[in-house]
Amino acid sequence: MKYKRILLKLSGESLMGAQGYGIDENRLSEYADQIKEIAGLGVQIGIVIGGGNIFRGLSGSKKGFDRVKGDQMGMLATVINALALNSALVAVGVKSKVLTAIRMEPIGEFYSKDKAIESLNAGYVTIFAAGTGCPYFTTDTGSSLRGIEIEADAMFKGTRVDGIYTADPEKDPTATKYDDISYDEILRQNLKVMDLSATVMCRDNNLPIVVFNMDKVGNLKKVILGENIGTYVHP
């Protein structure tokens, strides 16, 4: 097995499915089944999930919200999604727990690196909620931070597209896909894979990133087994 421990970053927007807001039960169930599949292979799985299907702090600040309060609302949105995913995983027989970057027992245990690694070693799919616990940081940065802290072999960024392109493939039909690309090339071309701080953190700590389409059922297992789908980001 190429990957023994991973950090899986899931998009909050993808949880909406076709309904445009909130949590689509079918999409949630698909995610739980795919995660169960790779957990069955013996992979240790840490997960960060965004909150954009419920509230996004940056867009809230543009509508008059105080940025700090808006980001805190976004953190709480990630907790809602984490609890939903936790519940879906438990329902299909997967051991799972939620750790939060902000104290909110009994909703979730307060995050620490030691607690996270202990949980992963015990076979729990471990969901990291509330981002970094600080405003002005996205869940992409939270994913990079948690991936580095838990000493993951790679970060898997599940998106709505099947990799990194020269431009946004949803807007530019001439965009071409990269099979692999370096961190520095992403930064040089200003490609919108993740925010700048998240990409730099991964580069500086040698955490590889695999960007793939999580919404296509079966892709998570394929990419874990090393099939050439998605885009591999490397030093």
Derived structural class: alpha/beta
Could you describe the largest sheet, including whether it forms a barrel?
9 strands, mixed
> Can you say what the CATH homologous superfamily is?
Acetylglutamate kinase-like
Q: Give the count of helical stretches.
A: 8
What percent of the residues sit in helical stretches (DSSP H or I)? 25-40%
Distance between the termini: 22 Å
Strand order of the largest sheet: 4-3-5-2-1-6-10-11-9
Q: pLDDT under 50 segments (min length 5)? A: none
Give the CATH architecture.
3-Layer(aba) Sandwich
Determine the strand fraction and express it as a percent band. Answer: 15-25%
Radius of gyration: 17 Å
Look at the structure and give the CATH class.
Answer: Alpha Beta
How many β strands by DSSP?
Answer: 11
Give the H and E element order.
Answer: EHEHHEEHEHEEEEHHEHE
Q: Any idea what the shape is?
A: globular
How would you describe the overall organization of this protein?
- α1 packs across α3, α5 runs parallel beside α7 and α6 runs antiparallel to α7.
- α1 links the parallel β1 and β2.
- It is globular and about 50 Å long.
- The strands form 2 sheets. A 9-stranded mixed beta sheet has the order 4-3-5-2-1-6-10-11-9, with helices on both faces. A two-stranded antiparallel sheet has the order 7-8.
- With 235 residues, the chain is of the alpha/beta class.
- The chain has a single domain, classed as Acetylglutamate kinase-like (Carbamate kinase), CATH 3.40.1160.
- The model has no long low-confidence stretch (mean pLDDT 94).
- The protein has 8 helices and 11 strands.
